[in-house]
Amino acid sequence: MGSRLIKHFCLLFVLLSSTTVISEPLTHKQKSCLSCHTVDSRTAFRGPQIGGLPEAYIYQQLVDFKTGLRVGVDEQNVMAAVSQSMSEAQMKDIAEWAADLETTAMFDHSKASDLPGFQVYETTCLDCHSSFMGRLMTGSPNLESLSPDYLVSQLHLFRNGSRHFKSPTKHQTKMMKVVKDLSEVDFANLNAFIKSAMP
Fold first, then answer.
1. Cα-flanking dihedrals φ and ψ of residue 96, to 5°?
2. CATH architecture classification, 50-102
3. Do the Cβ atoms of 182 and 190 come closer than 8 Å?
4. Could you report the per-residue pLDDT of 76-112, keeping only the tens digit for each?
5. Residue 47 CB-half CA count within 13 A
6. pLDDT in the model for residue 11
7. What residues contact 155, with CB distance under 8 A and at least 6 apart?
8. H/E run at residue 154
9. What is the C-alpha to C-alpha distance for residues 57 and 67, in angstroms, rounded to an integer?
10. Residue 72 burial (C-beta neighbours within 10 Å; 0-12, 13-18, 19+)
11. Interaxial angle between packed helices 88-99 and 2-36, expressed in degrees from 0 to 180 and rounded to the nearest 10
12. How far apart are CA 49 and CA 53, in angstroms?
């Protein structure tokens, strides 16, 4: 009985020790993430808030950065460099942790519904990004925690072909097509609307 208890204690000690060893680099990477991905960030390349985004979505972005699908502009190049040192397990751990972070609302489409760009948003963005079921069915991110500046920058990347997917789903393919097919007037109106839609 005493021997079995000692074995159980030793096993528990090993498990706890292993957890401690694994969590140390993750904690360091968590701090690295938060240095850019918060509303209070003062870094040169302030990233979007990552809390509230689906875990699978965050993980896929890290994979895309690491494999070179998301490169070309300074902000993306920074993330591409950071992700090179991350293992698959670390990326999954970061995604799980980040998805539960609290966020501050940065975008509210109702605040600028009187602008022409709202009609563009309503017909091209609303269904996939602004309802729970829409996001669940399409895997689209919730835009509420993303800053207008970030949203506008991503629209431009989609429009000029700098935002890529390895094996785009039908919804991602639709996203790329919708943005590219917007007229210059509609695209400009959409950008102006987004910039004005602060909570």
1. -65, -45
2. Orthogonal Bundle (1.10)
3. yes
4. 788 888 899 899 999 999 999 999 999 999 999 999 9
5. 20
6. 32
7. 179, 187, 190, 191, 194
8. helix 148-159
9. 15
10. middle
11. 70
12. 9
9-67 per-position pLDDT tens digit: 333 333 333 333 344 455 788 888 888 888 877 766 678 898 888 899 999 999 999 99
Tell me the domain boundaries of the chain: 50-102, 109-196
From the number of C-beta atoms within 10 Å of its C-beta (0-12, 13-18, 19+), residue 83 rates as: buried
- b/e per residue 84-102 (b: at least 16 CB within 10 A): eebeeebbbbbbebbbebe
**The predicted structure's pLDDT at residue 159:** 94
pLDDT digits (tens, 9 = 90+) for 137-185: 888 899 999 999 999 999 999 999 888 888 888 988 999 999 999 999 9
Q: Collapse the DSSP code of 113 into the 3-class scheme (helix H, G, I; strand E, B; otherwise coil) and give the result.
A: coil
48 exposure class (CB count in 10 Å sphere: 0-12, 13-18, 19+): buried
What predicted TM-score, i.e. pTM, was given to this entire model?
Answer: 0.77
